[in-house]
Specification:
Layout lengths: L1 H19 L11 E9 L2 E12 L2 E10 L8 E11 L2 E6 L2 E8 L2 E5 L3 E7 L1
Length: 121
């Protein structure tokens, strides 16, 4: 019975190390106002985010408009939270989560149904 417990302990330790091993210290600062567009399977629209970064944590606000299904009148506004790892930022907002890669004053990436392209204002 003892060897089975050790195997379970080792498996848990490996799982934890894999889950935490992919986080890198931030190499970018996303603080500021970012604006651009999203393109997706429900049309396209505009997005503006005001972000504040503290270490690897991000907070802020988002305003998204657009979408073909609503004649472009759909709007999402509200708070965002996120995390920075290396040059990548993941932002959680009311509509989901977007994973963006930051290159200087531009960032781009994908959410589940949209391609985002933003520039620092």
């Amino acid at each position: 019975m003892m060897p089975m417990r050790w195997l379970l302990v080792i498996a848990c330790l490996l799982l934890v190390s894999c889950a935490t091993g992919s986080t890198k210290p931030p190499s970018v600062d996303v603080t500021g106002t970012w604006a651009g567009e999203w393109i997706g399977n429900v049309g396209n629209g505009y997005v503006t985010m005001t972000l504040r970064q503290s270490s690897a944590s991000v907070t802020g606000d988002i305003s998204m408009t657009g979408g073909a299904g609503t004649g472009g009148a759909s709007r999402i506004t509200g708070p965002v939270t996120g995390d920075v790892s290396g040059d990548e930022v993941s932002i959680r907002y009311q509509g989901g989560i977007v994973h963006l890669t930051v290159r200087g004053n531009e960032m781009s990436g994908d959410s589940s149904a949209h391609r985002w392209t933003l520039k620092r204002q």
